[in-house]
């Protein structure tokens, strides 16, 4: 479980998030929506401890009953948090297999990592040859986002934050990613999906939909709430 209390975030003198509070429960999928500039991506990076963002002294981030507000990103990752990249970078000379073997370290041997990667790659419909190529080099948008999902699945975090995993992908890749996420959700995982669109929700049913506007949490509701927003827009919130 991830609890956020009175989170206020600034870059320099500009405040981007103002007094955000919410409890993200285990076993649930949350969707965070909002217009451009509402603070959604900033929230994701602040939760992960990105040093570019300064937190107010009253801000509290609590993971599994432990305060992690001042923990570095790598410590949060070690505690079971994962944030996907909105625009995954290419790593020349480093394959996803090499990256994951290094990330997993001594927790799994090389054969176990390779077997797990192959299993999830098949479910995500990632061609086998991409696994040994330089990560994301020359990959399509959909292939890059699938690779993000593959890395998350192998690392098996307890809190998975996906920043616009549905952006820049075609409908087939979108369906594959959504269905993989639906199968990936368990009673022990918290999934937070940040998105501009509702199209991924045709294939993935969230437990709660949160709406941010001008850096604040302004509304939330059940999975049907996303459709209501699509019809009426954000102006009335």
Entry keywords:
237 residues; five-stranded antiparallel sheet; AAA+_ATPase; alpha/beta; Rossmann fold; six-stranded mixed sheet; ATP hydrolysis activity; ABC_transporter-like_ATP-bd
The amount of beta strand, in percent, is: 25-35%
Which superfamily, in CATH terms, is the homologous superfamily?
P-loop containing nucleotide triphosphate hydrolases
> Numbering strands along the chain, what is their spatial order in the largest sheet?
7-10-11-3-12-13
**Quick check: average pLDDT?**
90
Number of helical segments?
Answer: 7
Overall CATH architecture: 3-Layer(aba) Sandwich
Number of domains: 1
What's the N-to-C terminus distance? 28 Å
Residue share in helix: 25-40%
**H and E string:** EEEHEEEHEEHHEHEHEEEH
Please report the first level of CATH classification, the CATH class.
Answer: Alpha Beta
- The coarse overall form would be globular
Number of strands: 13
Radius of gyration in whole Å, from Cα? 18 Å
Sheet bearing the most strands, described? Answer: 6 strands, mixed
CATH topology description: Rossmann fold
Protein name: Fe-S cluster assembly ATPase SufC
Pfam families: ABC_tran (PF00005)
Domain ABC transporter: 2-237
Organism: Candidatus Kaiserbacteria bacterium RIFCSPHIGHO2_01_FULL_56_24
């Amino acid at each position: 479980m991830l609890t956020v209390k009175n989170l206020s975030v600034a870059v320099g003198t500009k405040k981007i998030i103002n007094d955000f509070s919410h409890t993200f429960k285990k076993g649930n999928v949350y969707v965070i929506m909002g217009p451009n500039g509402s603070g959604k991506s900033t929230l994701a990076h602040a939760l992960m401890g990105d040093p570019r963002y300064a937190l107010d002294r009253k801000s509290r981030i609590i993971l599994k009953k432990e305060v992690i507000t001042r923990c570095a990103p790598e410590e949060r990752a070690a505690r079971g948090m994962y944030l996907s990249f909105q625009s995954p970078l290419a790593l020349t000379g480093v394959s996803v297999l090499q990256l994951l073997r290094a990330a997993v370290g001594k927790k799994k041997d090389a054969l176990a990592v390779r077997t797990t990667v192959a299993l999830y790659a098949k479910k995500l419909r990632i061609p086998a040859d991409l696994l040994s190529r330089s990560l994301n080099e020359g990959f399509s948008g959909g292939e890059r986002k699938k690779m993000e999902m593959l890395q998350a699945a192998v690392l098996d975090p307890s809190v998975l934050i996906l920043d616009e995993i549905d952006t820049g992908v075609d409908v087939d890749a979108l369906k594959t990613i959504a269905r993989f996420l639906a199968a990936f959700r368990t009673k022990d995982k918290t999934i937070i999906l940040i998105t501009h669109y509702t199209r991924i929700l045709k294939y993935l049913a969230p437990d709660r939909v949160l709406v941010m506007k001008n850096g604040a949490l302004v509304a939330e509701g059940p999975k049907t709430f996303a459709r209501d927003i699509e019809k009426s827009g954000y102006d009335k919130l």
